[in-house]
Structures are given as C-alpha cells and as structure tokens.
Amino acid sequence: METQKDVPFDFASWTGRSQAFAMVSRQCSAAQAECLRQIRESGHYTALSPNWDDFCRDHAGMSRPKVDALIRSLEEFGADYFRFSEIVRVTPDTYRQIAPAIADHALEFNGESIPITPENAPKIRHAVQCLRADLRQSQELASKRLSIIMLQAGFDSLFSDMERYIAGSPNATGIAGLNGLVQYSIDHLKRIRHTIPKP
Asked: Would you call 82 helix, strand, or coil by DSSP?
C-alpha cells in the first residue's frame, strides 16, 4: 500500500522557491507554510536530510524553531495571519491580540472597516498600535480590579475564621482576645483609609 511518504515530491522546485523567499524577505506565505507542514508530517524531508533540523537549515533556509513557529501560526490562525503579515509585520502574539478585530479580510477600527491591502498599510499599522495600546490599558485595569478582588477574598476568609471561632464558644480569655483583634483591625483600617488617594 502506498504511504504518504512514498508519494513523489518535487524538492528541486520547492527548495529553490523556499530559499529565495527566505533570503529575500524572510517572510513566508500561507502556501509555503502549508508545504513545510506537509513535508514535516509526511517525513519527505528524509529524502534530502537525515533529520528535520538539517532540512530546515539546509533546504528551507531557516532554523527549525523558525519553521516550527510558522507551522504553528498556520495551524492556529490559518492563511489570514500570513496575508496580514505580508502587509504589516506582526508577531503571532500581536496578531492573537488583534484577531477579534479582523473579519472578511478587513480590520475593524473606530467604526471603520479597513481592507487588508498594501495601500492601506499605514492605516493598518496605526490601527494596530492603537488597538494594542487599548488592550494594554484594559489589562492594567483588569489587573487592578483583580487585586481588589483578592484583597476582599482575604477579608472574607478572615471574617469566616472569626465567625467559626465565635461559634466554638470561646472562654473569657478568647473573647477578650477576639475583641482586641477586632479593635486592632478597625484602627488599622481607619489609618489605611486616610492614606487612600482622592479619586
């Protein structure tokens, strides 16, 4: 039975194109990334190199981590990532952040649908910068809100422990100690309240 590895592959023409794009632009099209993925999964590279690392370096013109990263981007984002990168260079992390604003080969920004075409590169670049800035601001606000939630969780845990302590019918010494702890907490909270900046 013929396996995928037995299927002939035109390495001569592929490696020529691959090395050309690697040396000239250091960019990769979706078709080239798909070709690399098929070569890796089928094992065809063993016809030219003893291992995948050597094939990437000697015949794809890139390091193995670079090739593997391109294949991961193809599998995660599809061809849209490569079309976008041909117009505006972005890392996979950046593309992941702005992907919700991309639909129908256009970037949605400030109510405008910007077609992803070379002539719109300056507008797209500006939009990407703004979208990333907005995202960073939202993440910072979310981080601050999360900190407040964590502080509240600490208080809730403390209150719960105190209520369990009371439910255990403490003796006179325990009751006096608990009252002292409550007053201690109130005094500290009052001091903290006076240090909170005005909005």
From this structure: helix
